[in-house]
Each structure stands twice: as structure tokens, then as C-alpha cells.
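Study this one:
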Amino acid sequence: MSVEIEVGLENAAKVKPAVQEEIFLEEPPKGLKNPKVRGLLVVGGLVLLAVAAGLLVYYHNRETTDDAQVDGHITPIASKIYGRVAEVLITDNQPVKAGQVLVRIDPRDYQASVDQAKAAVALAESDAASAGVDVPRTRENVASGTSSADAQLAGAVAALESAQVTYDQARTSDLAWAQANIEKSKANAELAQADLARYKPLLDKGEISKQQYDGAKANADATASALRADQEKLAQAQRAVDIARAQLVAAGARVEQAKAGVSSAHADVRQISMRTSDAQGKIAKVQQARAVLAAADLNLSYTEIVAPVDGVATHKQVEPGQIVQQGQGLLVVVPLQDVWVTANFKETQLRKMRAGQKAYVDVDTYGKTFSGHLDSIAGATGAVLSLLPPENATGNYVKVVQRIPVKIVLDPISPDKAILRPGMNVNATIITE
């Protein structure tokens, strides 16, 4: 033992380097015993925890779907009339402006219809003008006839009243006076005859003179003549009564005739209504002719098919010389500056979605992200809005998560940066704050 100690003491200097070699050649700890591994694991765990926390924070208020596409107003252009295509003024996929003429249809047939309608309007206006002149003229004629008939009736009534007075006078005063004179004359004649009859025997006896007898005879002859004269006057008075009666009847007839004239004149008033109705009918024909002219002008304007909006003319299906039918589709105009995104989210993703929320759209074509906002949510699922909606009440029912279209309006995008066309696939994300 002492020898080993001594050797060890003597070789102490030599043994020390050997011990150092043995220390450097020892293997480091493996696995979790290695401090470096433990440090890396701790750092990695912290990084993963931070990433998980970041992802959780990032995705907890986001809803994303890749079932989304760009939508826009697809405006089909069709012909409203039948005809032959005279010109096609655009090419496929050409930008167009609103009001720009795209296609011209041969206008000659429709121009002829316009000319014919204009002639019909002129004829109808002429007839209406003539009828308009007839109405006041008829009114004046009727008014004049009515006034004349009324005046004739008034004159006839006055003549009837005068004839009535004359008849009454002839029948009463004149006839009575003549009859009274006859009675007087008759009495005088009878007295004169009686005196003459008494004087005759006295003349024969010579008791009176011849002169006295002649005086009595002359008196008898005079009274007889007066009686005959009064009888003639009575006959004349009776004839005057008959004449007055005839004049009265004639005046009554003239009154009735005047009344008939007044009735006829009043009946002519209906001609004014007839003329007015005829004029109104002709005015209506003018309006009808003008409506036909307006329709012809409208059809003529349809010979030029114009772009309704700014956009790109595409899907052209028309060529010069082609006969097109009414309603036949010719091409489509797509306004590329007025597009939006329709994202079909699952019904389970709509819980926190509201109009106005921020949205982002990743466009596959450009590999860029564009911002926008949620505009509205459809009122029904895509299945219900499809051509053949499902009938869950028939057959075996399998519950399937439905998708509801959500409209996303994009913020303005410069054409130099990107042009979105309807039908492009995109990924849509809604920030549900």
C-alpha cells in the first residue's frame, strides 16, 4: 500500500493530466436530463402556447368559407322586334358604354309603319277639325231655328187672341145690334103697313086726301126698305161671324203649327249632342291614331339595340344578315365595376353575423386579399332557393348542415389592381365582432 502511495506521489504530476482527459471524454446527459434539451422544450412549449393563444384570439371571431364566388349584374340583351340584322357594331368581350348602339335591325319595314301612322293621324285630325266646326254651326242654326219658332208661336198666339176678340165681337155686339135693328125696322114696317091699311078705306070714302094716302104709302115703303136693309146687315153680321170663326180656326191652326215648329226646333237641339258626340268620337280617333303612331315610333326605335349600362359585351350570338325573333337573346353585358361576393356559409356559422361587419375576400385569380363588409344575409337556404327544393317530409330524412348565401360588398378596387369577374372563386372571411 505504501509503495502505491509513493508511486502515486511520485507520479502525481503525471497522473493529473490523465484525470483531465477522463473528464473531457465523459458523455453528456441524454433526454430531459440535458439542461439544453429542457431549455429548448420550455422555449418551444412557450412558443406553441403563444401560437395557440394567438390562433385562438385570431380565429375566435372569424368565420371563413371557401364556398364563395364573385357575382354581378348579368344583363342579357335581346331583340324586342322581329327583323333582319343589318349591323353588328361590337365584338365579343368589348367594353361598351351605356347608350352605345350594339346591333342595328333593318328599319325599313318599321319606317313604313311610322309613315302610315302619320298619315292616319293627319286624316283623323282633319276629320276632327271638320267635326269641331260643325258643332258651333249646328248650335247656331238650332238656336236661330228655335228663336224663329218661338217668335212664330208668339205671333200665332197673338193672332189667335185677336181673331178670338174679333169673333167674340162679331158674334155678340155686331150680330146683336143687327138683330135689334131688324126688330126695330120690322116694327116700323108693320106700323106703316097698318097705317096704310087704315088709310085705304078712308081714301075710298073720301075722308082723307090723296096726298095723305101717298104719304102713308111712302112711309110704308120706306120702313119696308129699312127692314130689308137691316136684314141685309144681319146677314152681313152673320157672315162676319162666320168669317171671324174661320179666322179664329185658322189662327188656332197657325198656333198649333207654330207649336209644332217649336217642338221641331227643340228636337233639333239633339243634333248638337249628336254633332258633339261625333266630334268627340273623331277626337278619340285622333288619340287612337296618335297612339298607333307612338307605338310605331317605339318599334322603330327598337331597331337600334343599345347597351343599358357600362360594361363588357360578351357571349355574342348575333351576326349580320341573321333573322332574329322577338325576345331572342343576342349577347350579354356585364358591368365589371358593380360586383359583389356571394359566400355560402354554413348555418352554424351565422350565429354572430350581422350586417355591416368587416369582411375579407381572398381571390384565387390574383392571390390577393380585398376588404369589404357584410351587406345582407339571404332569407332562405340555397337548397330552398334551388330549382327543385327538398321535400323533407317524404322518404327517410338525413339531417345535413345547410348553407345560406351571404352578400359581401367590396370596397372600391382600382382596375389597375384587379378586375373581378362574376363566377370567380374566392375565400370569404367575416369578422364577427
Notes: The domain at 109-277 is CATH 1.10.287.620 (Helix Hairpins).
